[in-house]
Design goal:
Blueprint: H1 4-13, H2 18-24, H3 29-43, H4 47-50, H5 54-71, H6 75-88, H7 94-116
Length: 118
């Protein structure tokens, strides 16, 4: 398991509000780290399969919106919110999905490098 000393500096470079995320996790650093590992292993890894059909994309965007917001990440969370809203409103969404995909790739790549270096 990764430690907060290893993880928090990286998350801050990725613009996570770590303090807010840890606070929402009951001020439990270890639990927050577990959730970040879960995000990497089981949520971000699904993006290529989940961003294929409108229904799956809307469900995935909803999951991301809440999960990322809880963890203190706002950029991708806001993109997920905008994508979910566009899909719900049957509005054009391809550019929103692409922007979210780029943001998720950025997060996943940084986390992957950290987890592989351990």
């Amino acid at each position: 398991m990764i430690t907060s000393a290893e993880l928090f500096p990286l998350l801050e470079t990725l613009n996570f509000d770590v303090k807010a995320g840890v606070s929402l996790c009951g001020n439990d650093d270890a639990f927050y780290c577990e959730l970040i590992e879960e995000l990497h292993a089981n949520v971000l890894s699904r993006r290529h399969h989940a961003l294929v059909s409108p229904v799956e994309t809307m469900e995935y965007a909803h999951l991301l919106k809440g999960t990322l917001q809880t963890l203190g990440e706002t950029s991708a969370s806001l993109k997920a919110r905008d994508l979910e809203k566009a899909l719900r409103d049957s509005a054009p969404h391809d550019q929103l999905a692409d922007a979210l995909r780029v943001e998720l790739d950025r997060l996943d790549s940084a986390l992957e490098q950290l987890f592989l270096s351990r």
